[in-house]
Structure formats: structure tokens, C-alpha cells
């Protein structure tokens, strides 16, 4: 069964501007700007004054109506990204062989993470970070990295790449718990344990 009209209104906070034209949304705030295309979904984005945006989907079935909430969440995440930013904290877990991590800097910002001595292996794992993601060694604890950035997708995908690079193969994963794991995530200054 199709619903005639499904709408959702997104509030825009002070200091943030949201532009939407032909289903491409651009959000600008104090930390920078993010843009994203939603051309794959048939819906209407309308600006209601300066502080809100309305999404309309006409004659959508159940799966299409789910996209309304999803896209509004994406836009809210973009607004949070340009106001607060996102932080993922990853920790190195090892039983015997200490994981050695080197940050390779290019133009003053770490763009590549090199992992050595994982389970005593000689292989050097090189993981490129997504664009706009800043990686620093944490001062709060030993064997910890902080990934920060405006785009939640870029930060979370970079943390996932670090985790996937250190998966244990051909051994009992209940016993060999070595690896890199996300310990905290969320907006900068308000991270919550995972």
C-alpha cells in the first residue's frame, strides 16, 4: 500500500546554513562544509525559512518511506559534523607481540597509518585514511589513536579499515584477541564507550 504523503522537518541550528538544490545538500558551519547527493531517492527537499528544511515523499511504498528518516539522519549527522565534529578512539589489544603503529605525515597531516609486528608478522600493513580525517596518538592512554573529522562516514570508515587490517587469520579467534578495536565514538567532547 502506498502512502500519499510522508514528510519530515529538519531543524537547522544557529550558525549553520543548509542549501538544497536538485537533491544535493550542502551544509556549512563553523568547522567547514560538507555536501552530499541524494539523487538516488525520489523526494522533494524544500527550505522553510532560514532554520528548517522539509522533506516530502509522495506515493511511497514501505521501503521508500524508510528513506525519509534515513536521509534526515544523514543531514542531521552533517549538521553535527560541521558544528562539533566526530571522534573515534581506537585501542590496540595484544597478548604477546606489541603492535607498532607509525603515522606517516604528508603536508603536516597523517594520511597513512603503518602497522608493524601484528602477531609477530613481518608484513607492514599500510592503511590510507579517508579525506578530511585527522589521526593523532592519544595522550590519555598508551596504545591508542584518535580519529577526528567532520564527516561521520569518513571517520567511521577509517576506523573500520584499521580494524579490518588486523584481523586474525587461521587461528582460534576466541583465544587470539589481538587487533585494533574501536573503544569510544561520538561527537568531539561527548564520546561514549562502545
For the structure shown, list the relevant keywords.
single chain, 19% helix, 194 residues, five-stranded antiparallel sheet, alpha+beta, three-stranded antiparallel sheet, elongated
Summarize the structure in words:
This protein has 2 helices and 14 strands; from the N terminus they run E-E-E-E-E-E-H-E-E-E-E-E-E-H-E-E. It has helices at 62-83, 152-165, and strands at residues 3-11, 17-21, 24-29, 32-37, 44-47, 52-60, 86-93, 100-106, 109-116, 125-128, 134-137, 144-149, 179-187, 192-193. It has a 5-stranded antiparallel sheet, covered by helices on one side. A 3-stranded antiparallel sheet has the order 1-6-5, with helices on one face. Strands 2-3-4 form a 3-stranded antiparallel sheet, covered by helices on one side. The two termini are 38 Å apart.
Question: Count the helices. How many?
Answer: 2
Q: How many beta-strand runs?
A: 14
Low-confidence stretches: none
Strand order of the largest sheet: 11-12-7-13-14
Let me know the largest β-sheet.
5 strands, antiparallel
Oligomer: single chain
Helix content: 10-25%
Short description:
This protein is of the alpha+beta class. It has helices at residues 62-83, 152-165; strands at residues 3-11, 17-21, 24-29, 32-37, 44-47, 52-60, 86-93, 100-106, 109-116, 125-128, 134-137, 144-149, 179-187, 192-193.
SSE arrangement:
Layout: E1 3-11, E2 17-21, E3 24-29, E4 32-37, E5 44-47, E6 52-60, H1 62-83, E7 86-93, E8 100-106, E9 109-116, E10 125-128, E11 134-137, E12 144-149, H2 152-165, E13 179-187, E14 192-193
Antiparallel strand pairs: 1-6, 2-3, 3-4, 5-6, 7-12, 7-13, 8-9, 9-10, 11-12, 13-14
Amino acid at each position: 500500500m502506498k502512502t500519499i504523503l510522508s514528510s519530515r522537518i529538519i531543524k537547522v541550528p544557529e550558525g549553520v546554513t543548509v542549501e538544497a538544490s536538485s537533491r544535493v545538500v550542502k551544509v556549512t558551519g563553523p568547522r567547514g562544509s560538507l555536501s552530499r547527493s541524494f539523487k538516488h531517492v525520489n523526494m522533494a527537499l524544500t527550505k522553510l525559512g532560514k532554520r528548517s528544511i522539509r522533506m516530502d515523499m509522495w506515493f511511497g511504498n514501505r521501503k521508500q518511506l524508510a528513506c525519509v528518516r534515513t536521509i534526515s539522519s544523514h543531514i542531521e549527522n552533517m549538521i553535527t559534523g560541521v558544528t562539533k565534529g566526530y571522534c573515534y578512539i581506537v585501542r590496540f589489544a595484544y597478548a604477546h607481540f606489541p603492535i607498532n603503529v607509525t603515522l606517516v605525515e604528508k603536508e603536516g597531516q597523517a594520511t597513512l597509518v603503518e602497522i608493524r609486528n601484528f602477531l609477530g608478522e613481518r608484513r607492514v600493513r599500510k592503511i590510507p585514511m579517508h579525506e578530511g580525517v585527522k589521526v593523532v596518538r592519544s595522550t590519555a592512554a598508551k596504545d591508542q589513536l584518535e580519529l577526528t573529522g567532520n564527516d561521520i562516514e569518513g571517520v567511521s570508515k577509517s576506523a573500520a579499515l584499521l580494524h579490518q587490517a588486523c584481523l586474525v587469520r587461521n587461528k582460534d579467534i576466541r583465544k587470539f584477541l589481538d587487533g585494533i578495536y574501536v573503544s569510544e565514538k561520538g561527537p568531539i567532547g561527548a564520546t561514549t564507550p562502545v
